[in-house]
Amino acid sequence: MKKKIVLILGACLLVGLVWYLFIKPYDYLVTFKAKTFPGTINQTIKIWDKTMNTIANVEQKNLNQLRQQLKFGDSVHIYDWDIEPISDSLSKVRVYVTDRQHSLKNKIAIPFFDTDFEKNTKKTLIDFNEKLKEHISKFKVKIVGQYEVKSTYCAYISLKGTQYEKANGMMINYPFLSNTLAEKKVKLNGTPFVEVTNWDIQTDSIAYNFCFPIIKSDSLPIHEEIKYKQFTGKKALKAVYNGNYITSDRAWYALLDHAKKNKIEIEANPVEVFYNNPNFGGDELNWKAEIYMPLKD
Prior knowledge:
The longest helix has 22 residues, at 2-23. The chain has helices at 2-23, 38-49, 103-109, 116-136, 166-183, 249-261; strands at residues 28-34, 59-62, 65-72, 75-87, 90-99, 139-149, 152-162, 193-200, 205-213, 227-231, 234-243, 271-274, 288-294. The chain is α+β, with helices and mostly antiparallel strands. Residues 6-24 have low confidence and may be disordered. A hairpin with a 2-residue loop joins β2 and β3.
């Protein structure tokens, strides 16, 4: 009986060893919590990646799972990120790290030594975590709940680009649109807003209309870049965002998470209403925007 138990234990140990050395898909695992939602972490990884020595762009399986390939000397380290939302303001992050060239060596050494691979991985992810905390400190998002977005007639310019480029597109076109309307004495009927007509979450690219609400009249300026239409009001989830408008899309992700958690069907075409002109500068945490995610009919 004892011999049988020894054989079983030996077999289990052998299977475990074979799995650990040859099948286990990563060399090292780092886990930490972040006081934000997955979309913020996703975007911070992509921005941070551009400052690193990488050999390829970040691969995004989905919003919560990404892969990086970072080069350290003669080694390529694979960082597989898995982001798990815990609450509206807390996420758990797991980073599975593999050294392509020295995986077996790392697996053998890690249980017994404080390896350079471990030290480098910890240092790299501590650097990322500090940058994430710094970014989180620069904006605020508050979910308000369901709200009715009002209809309005508007003058608008259609633009395309990345989410990151949206604020620059607004800053460039703000004086052009406002001055053109002012010259014809067009009466404004509210603050500027952005209507996203297409959002490709996989590539972080958007098509959007930069709009000025106006009073409709018979003497509107004619210009090849300026168009006019009736913006149709709709029911939506609302959030209030404070911070630089470059990262107002953080509220988009917060609304996506809130809708998923509460089983609310939405259309991922956000509308942003702005209350500050970025060209005037000032304390960015005092900049305000209302962000709406339309409900499905």
